[in-house]
Amino acid sequence: MSLVVLLAGILFAIHNTAAVSIDLIFITLPEASLSMWLLGAFALGGLLGVVLSSVIIMTLKTRLYYLKKKMNAAREQLDSLSANQARLDGH
């Protein structure tokens, strides 16, 4: 599968060799082939997706850790109250 993607990328680069410059309103990027700009944008988008999803995953894991800690504290308190109630019922 990766060989097919690599082949498609090579064919894409071969067929899109026109030099273009990118105008971002405030700055103009230097001329490069259309395929390089598109592949660069694709790679940058993939990298940003990985970074942003990693931040979200870490945030959710941190929240999960604290919620598990809170749940264990509540479970211990419930067990303690149940033990006290059982002791009171025994007398």
From TrEMBL:
One of its GO terms (cellular component) is plasma membrane. It comes from the Bacteria. The chain crosses the membrane at residues 35-60. InterPro entries: LapA_dom. Residues 16-79 form the Lipopolysaccharide assembly protein A domain. Keywords: Cell membrane, Membrane, Transmembrane, Transmembrane helix. This is LapA family protein. It comes from Nitrincola tapanii.
